[in-house]
Specification:
Helix content is 6%, strand content 54%. The protein is mainly beta and 551 residues long. The strands form three sheets. The chain has a 22-stranded antiparallel β-barrel. Strands 20-21 form a two-stranded antiparallel sheet.
């Protein structure tokens, strides 16, 4: 800028001198002029300092973001009533599985001790196996303290191998169930040792099936079960089962078959082996785009000798399923029949206080009709409603013995028992935030030869709710209601109606960390000692608290 300024000054000076030298008329010679430019200041620029040293590279460090998972996976299912399972008894604990494995323990009133563990490997493409342990015991009960104690323990081993073409599954289970015949007259003296009953049950099973769905799908399984009680009763059950379906164009051929060999020994009975073979071929095809038909027949061959029933039974099998427009609603109907297997395993699971030397025979379900509707009311809200009607031969009921009322006989109606069932259910599933299940059943029975329907409820209601209140608090509640059961009271000499049952359970889980959580559980919170069978009231309010470790 300074150099430019000096140059402009010089040009202006020259211009002024030139204008003064010009004559008035614009003619003349140029005079000699000397111009001296004096620079009194020298401008210099400082030499820039340059640093050519290279910046050393920063060593790479692995990025390890702190990611933590707080996952809660709680099994939650609603299943229909199975008469081989007593729904009103305490069930196994359902735990929040924060990780794949867990150990839980707790204590409660009635001298209750609870231990449960689930151990498993991480499932991969080749194998998956694990073990489970369970124990729940009560040192006292609702009648005469220790004379109504009970316990249930189990050990299970399981595993699955995933092959390219065949998947193999194996399982071993052992159960130890202890109870007392506490349905006696409390005014009479008893020998506590004679009241004890204990069941030891173990079963071993294996299953083979094709790994990937194909035109021909199959599953072959075998099970061996053995039961022995403290009263010298024993039963073994070997069952082989085959299931298959074969695709023929747009149709399918189905074939299910199973065979059971049952051998039993009791105090005074050395029963002959019982055989049951069932074959169920069926053809599945589409009549219309949304109408699927399944037609076939069921064949049952058995050697039970109760009544005048034949040894070979043939039942028709027809099933129709129609999907309404949109696919959210399905209407179904089925007309069929079958031979229902009855063994000591099932009777003892339904009634722990069954007597010795009882007769055991299969139930002939000669006619079985069912129909209903199922679908979605909303994206996460499913429903189902329907009815069924069946004609049953050799259907069994429990009745208290006249001499020993604390034990139960198994009575069979040799005629035709009519059973109907009207039901409705709702299921809502919003991930782990909210799960809701409701099922209501109404039953009616018409007996042929027996005077009354013993120990069969006329209605049953089940409600299950799981709700995550906040991230670390999980609430579960269960409601079971049933009523209408009748029994014959030998002391009164007449039929009585048992009290209705209202059983409310509540469980609270608080997650302390990804590995530890505490729980508090209450069962039968209404405190109603309703009878499960005549003379056998359940425990009142049951409280349980403990800790769960997951890993």
């Amino acid at each position: 800028m300074i150099v430019l300024r000096n140059l402009l000054l010089a040009i202006l000076l020259l211009t002024a001198l030139y204008s003064q030298a010009q004559p008035p008329d614009g003619q003349g010679e140029i005079e000699k002029v000397e111009i001296e430019i004096i620079r009194d200041k020298q401008i210099t620029l400082k030499k820039a300092e340059r640093n050519f040293e290279k910046i050393p590279p920063r060593p790479a460090e692995p990025i390890k973001p702190a990611i933590t998972y707080d996952l809660v996976n709680i099994p939650f299912t609603i299943s229909e009533y199975n008469p081989s399972i007593r729904p009103l008894r305490a069930q196994s604990e359902v735990l929040p599985r924060l990780n794949g494995n867990y150990v839980a323990a707790g204590v409660g009133n009635f001298g209750s001790l609870y231990v449960e563990s689930y151990l498993t490997t991480k499932r991969d493409r080749n194998k998956w196996y694990g073990a489970k342990i369970y124990h729940r015991g009560f040192s006292t009960g609702p009648v005469d303290d220790k004379n109504s104690a009970s316990s249930q323990s189990s050990l299970g081993l399981f595993g699955t191998s995933f092959g390219k073409s065949v998947t193999t599954t194996g399982e071993f289970n052992y159960q130890d169930v202890g109870t007392y015949f506490y349905g006696y007259d409390p005014t009479e003296p008893v020998n506590r040792d004679t009241l004890r009953q204990r069941y030891g049950i173990f079963d071993l099973s294996v299953r083979f099936e094709n790994t990937k769905p194909a035109d021909f799908n199959y599953a072959l399984s075998g099970t061996f079960s053995y039961l022995q009680d403290r009263l010298e009763a024993a039963e073994s059950d070997v069952t082989l089962r085959f299931q298959s379906d074969y695709k023929v164009k747009d149709h399918r051929l189905r074939l299910d078959a199973d065979y059971s060999l049952i051998a039993r020994k009791d105090q005074a009975i050395d029963a002959k082996p019982r055989n049951l073979l069932r074959l169920k071929p069926a053809y599945e095809f589409n009549i219309l785009e949304n109408l699927v038909m399944q037609a076939g027949f069921n064949i049952a061959m058995e050697d039970d000798t109760l009544g005048k029933d034949k040894s070979v039974h043939i039942y028709p099998h027809v099933r129709a399923t129609y999907a309404l427009t949109g696919g959210n609603t399905v209407i179904y109907a089925q007309f069929s029949g079958d031979m229902d297997k009855v063994n000591l395993h099932g009777l003892a699971a339904e009634n722990r206080w069954v007597a010795s030397n009882i007769g055991i025979y299969h139930t002939n379900r000669s006619i079985d009709f069912s129909g209903g509707i199922q679908g979605k009311l909303a994206k996460k809200l499913n429903y189902e409603a329907g009815l069924s009607w069946a004609n049953l031969k050799n259907f069994y009921f429990f009745q208290n013995k006249a001499v020993q009322p604390e034990k139960f006989d198994v009575l069979y109606d040799l005629g035709n028992v009519k059973r109907s069932n009207l039901f409705a259910s709702l299921a809502y599933d919003q991930s782990e935030k909210l799960k809701l299940g409701i099922r209501a059943d109404y039953y009616s029975y018409f007996v042929d030869e027996l005077p009354e329907v013993w120990h069969r409820p006329t209605y049953r209601l089940r409600v299950n709710v799981l709700y995550t209140l906040v991230e670390k608090i999980i609430i579960r509640t269960d409601l079971i209601a049933q009523g209408g059961m009748k029994a014959f009271d030998a002391d009164l000499g007449k039929t009585v109606t048992l009290d209705n049952a209202w059983d409310v359970g509540l469980r609270l889980d608080y997650v302390l960390s990804p590995r530890f959580s505490v729980f508090a559980k209450g069962e039968n919170l209404m405190g109603q000692e309703y009878p499960s069978f005549l003379g056998y009231p359940v425990r009142g309010i049951q409280l349980l608290g403990g800790l769960t470790w997951t890993f």
